[in-house]
Amino acid sequence: MKPYLDIIRPLNCIMAGIGALAGCVIAGVPGFSYLVLVKVLLAFTVVFLITGAGNTLNDYYDAEIDKTNHPDRPIPSKRIKQKNAIVFAAGLFISGIIISCFLNTGAFLIAVIATLLLVSYEKKLKNRGFTGNVVISILVAFVFIFGGASLSGNVTGITTMKIFLNEMKIVFVLAGMAFLANLGREVIKDIEDVEGDTDRVTLPMKIGVKNAGLVVSGAIILSVIISPIPYFLREFGSIYLGIIGLADAIFIYSIILLDKPGIASKIIKTGMAVSLIGFIVGGIL
Question: Taking the C-alpha atoms of 149, 8, 84 and 146 in order, what is their torsion angle to the nearest 10 degrees?
């Protein structure tokens, strides 16, 4: 049992599930009821399962590399057979998709698309540099969108679509910030590894480290620009603005430290965490 728990990286799954819960809070919980509680728990479970499936799939495709880089992982340490890992991943994906059916059509479609993106990433896109960076960043944004969408009704026409977009507008801002900040962080990690990457063509390899740094700066600055939107829409108050201002300062600081990519990557991660706290506080107050 423990090897299968190890291969999904449960802490990673829990953090992703918390992201979905944040999406629920930010979209606005429509009054407490047992139905809402069940939906929130189902949303957490779906994200947990699909994230676990993605992590398992990652170990399946990286089995040979991990013999050298991570020999203690379940597959290279022979605690799990490689063929059993792929079956386990498929089971987690299918379980997550089936559970999403009990939420609504939008949540189901997001779960299916996320599954297809994860499989495509591990099979082909991981080694395609910037394309892989974009896919991973979309998946990070999807966590929040999925959480918010889980509490919405089925979108069956123009009227319900307008309601859905209105309910989700702040979640989309968070998702946009998450996408941009994570994209910057992924490119920074490629800048850090530019000399060691031999099995894939990354953005810094294609356009140079300096130009890749400009892409990072552009993504981070765009994230900062859209961050005050919830305040300007009068959805969130001054407390949100104060917290998000701190997050923006952290993001800007990461740009200053681009010549130290390892540190800059960690600072962006900190900025993302502070941003999430700001959105959760804004959604609650």
Answer: 10
Annotate 75-114 with DSSP letters as a single string: TTTTSS-HHHHHHHHHHHHHHHHHHHTTT-HHHHHHHHHH
Retrieve residue 56's tokens.
């398992």
Dist CA 60 CA 8 (whole Å): 11
> Which CATH superfamily hosts domain 1-154?
UbiA prenyltransferase (1.10.357.140)
Q: Which letter, b or e, does each residue of 256-265 get, where b requires 16 or more Cβ atoms within 10 Å of its Cβ? A: ebbeebeebb
| 3-state SS class at 59 | helix
- Report helix, strand or coil for 173: helix
What does the pLDDT read at residue 157? 54
CB atoms inside a 10 Å sphere around CB 32: 8
Give the integer Cα–Cα distance in Å for 126 and 245. Answer: 34
Quickly count: other Cβ atoms within 10 Å of residue 175's Cβ: 24
- Helix then strand then coil, % of the chain, to nearest 5: 80, 0, 20
**Total residues belonging to the chain:** 285
Degrees, nearest 5: CA angle 229-235-241: 55
DSSP annotation of 73: S
What are the two backbone dihedrals, phi and then psi, of residue 200, each rounded to the nearest 5 degrees?
A: -155, 155
* pLDDT band, very low/low/confident/very high, at 32 (cuts 50, 70, 90): low
pTM, whole model, 2 decimals?
0.90
* CA neighbours closer than 13 Å in the CB half-sphere of residue 139: 24
Name the residue ranges covered by the structural domains of the chain.
1-154, 155-285
Average pLDDT over residues 209-238: 95
